[in-house]
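Tutorial, part two.
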Amino acid sequence: MIKIVTVSSKSELASFIDFPHDLYEGDPNYVPELFIAQRDLLTKHPFHKHNKVQPFLAYRNGKVVGRIAAILNNAHNEYNKKNDGFFGFFDCVDDTEVSNLLFDVVTGWLKDRGVSGKLLGPVNFSTNEPCGLLIQGFDSAPFLMQTYNKPYYAKLIESYGLDKDVDLIAWHWDGQAYDDKSVRLLNSLEERLKRNNIIIRKINLKKFKEESAKLREVYNSAWDANTGFVPLTDDEFDYLAKDLKLILDPDFALVAEQDGKIVAFGLALPNYNEIFQKIKRGRLLPSGIFKLLLGKKKIQSIRIYALGVIDGYRKMGIEACLYGTIIREYKAKGFKHAEAGWTLEHNDMVNRAIEAIKGDPYKKYRLYQKAI
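Running the prediction step on this input gives:
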């Protein structure tokens, strides 16, 4: 007998957050999410001010066997002129009876709130956060803020009638196996940009609030044509920026600026998943906090998290300068691995540029869709 429970209490929320730890026990590539971060995401994130999220748990004989969240993203529907709903935080035992019931309850919840378009996902909560189902590249752990799941998840999702919407690609470099042409040309590229009064500089952490406001405008402009994109509200971007500030390396936080106007930025993050993987059940106390503090200097990899240029400034060499500066710092700091992504499968211009510096498309994630 399978029972679906609407998560409403603190204890149910804790069970919702903790379920993956039990499901993935013994998996060497599983990275537990920090409990406090997941709790705040599901209860305090500014997303909840304008949208609705409802988590559900599936029980069999008193034991959790699955979880899912129904997500009504009003901002997505208004911006894209849609009437869609989303699912996220999907984890399940290998049993289509359980997964079908979870998708049934999400579909019913969305219909009750007037959704009549498509069911889309997985996203947590939108494409601005971790999203996509891993369908290729199960042989290594995910990088920071990327998803991970068991291979059978695709079968569970597709058995409910969901099919491909779009694929997302993550790119990998091993050691020094990259083309450093952009590094070798960096000085000449920067000189060319200076003739247009464009400079590449690091983000000023002492004026982070002021910088963040300018970066928000670039973010919402540079990615506006991406599939499923939803502009971040001021509160949402500030929430993201505050979290990123805690973990960013200033040498990898770059902007392109023209006469005081930020027209592009590039951000690579130390891959903190190397540390999170060692923090049992995502608990910082009693010992997790020490692993976090002591492990920062031992991180061996970075993730190129975002690189965007606003319209009117593309194909001027800014992208190459940002990549070149990141590669130069990567080499100087002696990192052993790098990931870039994700990128949309049909973003030929960006994908060709990454291929040109010998990026390996080693992981693929899929977003699914189904008419409601």
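The first helix runs from residue 10 to 23. In part three we will examine how such features are distributed along the chain.
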